[in-house]
Amino acid sequence: MCKLNGRHYLRYGSIPSMHTINSLLDSQHAKNYPPHKTTTSKLTDKQQSNLKSPIKDVNERLNGVKECFNPLFPFFSLGSRVVNHFSSRFSFHSPSSSSDEDLYHHIQNLNQAFRSSQIAPHNIAIVADGGIKKSQVATAVTHIWSENSLVQCLQANSTNITSIEAKLMAIYLGLIPAMEEENVHNIIVITDSIAAAKKFFESKTDPLQNMFIPVTSAIDSFFRKDGRNKIQFWFCFSKTKWPKHKLVDDQVKADKCAPIFPSKESYLFNKKKECDNILSEWQDFFMSNPKRGQLFLDFEDKNQKVIKPTYAKGGSWLPSIGFTNSLCARFTHMTTGHAPIREYKQRFLSHLPISCPCGKAKVQTREYIVMECDTYDPSTRPCNIIINSFVYFLVDNSSTFSFDNG
To answer: pTM here?
Structure first.
């Protein structure tokens, strides 16, 4: 019971329909298994309010999450996947790197692919995008182009889902009607999330399987219908403002759909909300915990927000300072105050002088070294508290805050 409650939806989805635990769940989750005489649905309201049980928690949590998990569907089994039969009929096109040069060449190839799809017969281009607003309303928009004309503009809204689900929904909106068109053999899908598109062809356990099933089934039927049928997925960065994708992106951002309450949550949204709450508690603890040290320096990111601990994208500080071991160590010395400067040494060796060797400061502090000391080139001094400004200072002054030269 405790294991089922701990990762309730994944574990519930993998339970066989004849497992006896189904008899304890509410009827809508029991997979047609006869209810047990002690099931919670047979208790009075007063008994349910006084009951403390893992199975009650599972029922409540399942009632608040959209159905999305189906690991036993035939398309996810070995030998039945689309990739097993039609691996040469679909492709993904992304830039080889995020450099400006590679992005430029990729956009040129994308332009060529789109133009070809509008000239050649039996071709359709789909431009899809999705996004989430602060109100937790998701908007998915798809434009379908044929012969240089916008033939369909499709939009859907949902609540309490994640951004990747919104992007999947946008691709779904365009692919299904496009594959149902007669005499269409080549479909180009343009999206800013290739990772979302690849999920339609993966067989691994994923909490979005029920969203994949209708698309995967339609793709399989589309490929079987005609040996010429193909699908290409092209990546398009939103920041490139490629004209056709910008139209879709602008429509997503301009949508004013109001949330509908009450609304169930997707599994990924539920998981993200729980992770965000844990992360927020961790960050609050870090900022208020005296163990981080009174001398700890707070920096800002490029958006001018104070950097706090995180587990995502390599962490908070390492992506900026992890170029070399020396740079990482010197930045750590500077941030914590445990640095080879006279202010720090004076705490242990009180007989040593504490003034800066430049002769202009009574106490050699980190702030004075970085912002005022004439020993260093003034052009390298940080002009704000953004972390990269301090990293550039340490790169330009390769011995600063190094104990080897302290």
So the answer is: 0.66
CA distance 144 to 178: 8
Residues constituting the chain: 406
pLDDT digits (tens, 9 = 90+) for 335-380: 988 888 888 888 787 788 889 988 888 988 989 999 899 888 888 8
What DSSP line would sit under 324-378, residue for residue? Answer: -HHHHHHHHHHHHS-SSSHHHHTTT-TTS--S-TTSS-SS--HHHHHHT-TTS-G
Domains of the chain with bracketed CATH = 2-63 (no CATH), 74-254 (3.30.420.10), 318-405 (no CATH)
Indicate the SS3 state at residue 198: helix
Q: From the CB of residue 1, how many other CB atoms can be counted at a distance below 10 Å?
A: 13
Which residues does residue 140 pair with via DSSP β-bridges, in sequence order?
Answer: 130, 156
| Cβ contacts of 273 within 8 Å, gap of 6 or more | 265
Residue with tokens 């309490």: 160
State yes or no: pLDDT of 9 exceeds 50.
no
The Cα 229–Cα 184 span in angstroms is 7
Does residue 406 have a pLDDT over 60? Answer: no
**Is the per-residue pLDDT at 277 higher than 70?**
yes
66: which residues sit within 8 A by CB, 6+ positions away? 264, 265, 266, 267
Positive or negative torsion for Cα 393, 399, 404, 406: negative
CA nearest neighbour of 107 among 216, 293, 240: 240
Distances from the Cα of 84 to the Cα of 157, 216, 256, 283, angstroms: 33, 13, 42, 45
* Peptide bond just before 262 cis, omega within 30 deg: yes
**How far is residue 22's CA from residue 168's CA, in Å, rounded to a whole number?**
31
Q: Which residue has the higher pLDDT, 15 or 153?
A: 153
pLDDT in tens, 185-240: 999 999 999 988 998 887 666 667 777 778 888 999 999 999 999 999 999 988 88
Strand-pairing partners, residue 156, are: 140
Task: Indicate the residue type of 33.
Answer: Y
The DSSP bridge pattern shows strands 137-146 and 123-132 to be: antiparallel
**Burial of 402 per CB tally in 10 Å (0-12, 13-18, 19+):** middle
Looking up tokens 């429509």, which residue turns up? 251
Contact present, 76 and 82 (Cβ < 8 Å)? no
Which letter does DSSP use for residue 240 in this model? G
Residue located via tokens 């969203």:
211
